[in-house]
Amino acid sequence: MGRTIRQTKILDLISKKEIETQEELVAELKNANFDVTQATISRDIKELGLIKVLSDSRKYKYALEKTGNSNVSIKMTNMFRECVISIENAKNLIVVKTLSGSANAAAMLVDKSGFDGVLGCIAGDDTFLIICKDDFGVDKVMQKLHDIIK
After folding, report:
1. Which of 37, 59, 107, 138 could form a disulfide with 123 if both were Cys (CB 3.0 to 4.6 A apart)?
2. How far apart are CA 22 and CA 67, in angstroms?
3. Which H or E element spans position 64?
4. For residue 51, what is the enclosing H or E element?
5. pTM of the model
6. What CATH code is carried by the domain that includes residue 128?
7. What Cα–Cα distance (Å) separates residue 77 from each residue in 7, 74, 90, 130, 150?
8. Is 130 helix (H, G, I), strand (E, B) or coil?
9. Same structural domain for residues 116 and 84?
10. Per residue in 20-51, pLDDT tens?
11. Strands annotated E in 69-109
């Protein structure tokens, strides 16, 4: 499996679980059928710009580093661009199709972007749904998403 898919899985894992060490991350990836070494994970952590933050349970865990004025890293934007297959809308909903296993990480970009009019996202394996407040907000969000994947 490629680096982009593995790094997308890392983002997915850290969004769902409190992962404190590289060894835990290696174990979680191996459970998800990724054959990785600690050295590979170390490089991925650096490339993704992951940092350790204090969680609600008072443990340190891996999280995405916030860069500049944006909550979305350049790497996360690039991963979104690489994993999105299609974007379609119906009324106040936007359906985004992704590569298998990438929907959660791609939905994180939308959540962290704070697009006006977005109530939230629901992600599956290869599809995520963006729920907008109304039909009018959909056009703006669709334009922003298309700008990202260009």
Report:
1. 107
2. 22
3. strand 60-64
4. strand 50-54
5. 0.63
6. 3.30.1360.40
7. 12, 5, 24, 17, 11
8. strand
9. yes
10. 999 999 999 999 999 999 999 999 988 887 88
11. 84-90, 93-98
